[in-house]
Design goal:
Layout: E1 21-25, E2 30-33, E3 38-40, E4 45-46, E5 52-53
Antiparallel strand pairs: 1-2, 2-3, 3-4, 4-5
């Protein structure tokens, strides 16, 4: 049960990433959100029911820097 007001979006919502973090471990690359979602640094997600959401970071060619 989410104690926040307004309540955090549920794990099955498209807005699930907007939930408040309960545990944040940037050194390990993950955060546990209030709705039970494990959010990974690469934007991948593990939902409470075990489903996996693949990373969805935008990778346009304008963001790629060629090696020197």
């Amino acid at each position: 049960m989410c104690p926040h007001r307004p309540p955090c979006p549920p794990a099955d919502s498209a807005a699930r990433e907007a939930a408040h973090p309960l545990a944040h471990h940037p050194e390990q690359g993950w955060s546990l959100l209030c709705n039970g979602v494990l959010l990974f640094e690469d934007t991948g997600e593990l939902l409470p029911d075990g489903r996996i959401i693949a990373p969805h970071r935008p990778l346009g060619t304008a963001q790629v820097v060629p090696a020197a």
